[in-house]
Amino acid sequence: GVEVGPQPQGVVRADILDKMRKIVKHGLDFVQLFNEGREFPPCTIEVFKIMEKVDYPRNKNDEVIAIIHPKLQDQDWQPLNNGDPLFLTLDGEVIAYKGDCTVYPTFINEAAYYEKKQAFVKTVKVNLTAKHIRSSVL
């Protein structure tokens, strides 16, 4: 599957649809070249690894007591450092990120995850390395 966004539920955006089509085309091009016997050299790619799902702050009755801070909203895949604003309580208090490393939040304040108690997902950057590959069937 391919998930491309962000995009509100029930909405089709032309720019996001175009990105999805390009990704699928690249995938199909790879499969065709691989099946034709093309050798692909070793490569390294930077990816984001999911570390933790983060819920909204809640009180003892399980009610949300803070919202995503305006400086975090729409900042998917951007670095979040210790001390950066994370949430804003309903009475205006800033709740800062407390972490020992830089993380990259994603799925920030997405409606589809609200009922799942997920304000955002913390990810970290990692490098994946692949050895060269070539189809053994020619």
Automatic annotation (TrEMBL):
This is ACY2 Aspartoacylase. GO terms for molecular function: hydrolase activity, acting on carbon-nitrogen (but not peptide) bonds, in linear amides; metal ion binding. The lineage of its organism: Eukaryota, Metazoa, Chordata, Craniata, Vertebrata. GO terms for cellular component: cytosol. The gene is Aspa_0. Residues 44-123 form the AstE/AspA barrel-sandwich hybrid domain. It comes from Spizaetus tyrannus. It comes from the Eukaryota. Keywords: Hydrolase, Metal-binding, Zinc. InterPro entries: AspA/AstE_fam, Aste_AspA_hybrid_dom.
